[in-house]
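The records we work with from here on pair a chain with its fold. These numbers are not coordinates but entries in a learned vocabulary of local backbone shapes. To see the layout at work, look at the sequence and tokens printed below:
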Amino acid sequence: MQQKPTRARILDAAHELMFTHGLARATTKEIAKAAGCSEAALYKHFASKEELFVSVLRERLPRLNPLLSELVEKPGERSVLENLTEIARLAGDFYAQSFPIAASLYAETKLKRRHEDSMREMGTGPHMPIEALDAYLRTEREAGRIAPDADTFAAASLLMGACAQRAFAYDATVGKEPPQPVEEFAAAIARTLLKGIS
């Protein structure tokens, strides 16, 4: 069987190590070793660990931003409720997978600051899904499918915040009630949010 290209192997290894060890503890040396290449080869494909992290988020986790971009272009093909449910489902999956990767950043102030600086330089960061959802909701407001006075940024922040909180608190429910499946969670969040902006 033919071996995957080096870049794909690096992304696979980075995803696995970042998920199991956290971003702070997954070194580029370990990632390169797991990918079967040198650290120099890793840096031929990715300028920094932060760029590698962003590539893992974009290429190995559920794709939230493409859906949001598509909905801004073609908002009226499905109902607002269907769109919000799908957004919440994808966001729930995205945060559930990205939270274990990024959580270790919050334990090291200098690393977190360096990471945030790198995200700004690359023009990305955790604010992007909120801004993209805000843009989609503004198109729905302009189309008259939600209330003309709806605060779209607040609504976007509430939906994304709920999805992020679910990922943060998910493990805390172990030993109690089983966690609500993401599909049920997404439908409930979408229905509740839509009541507030309809």
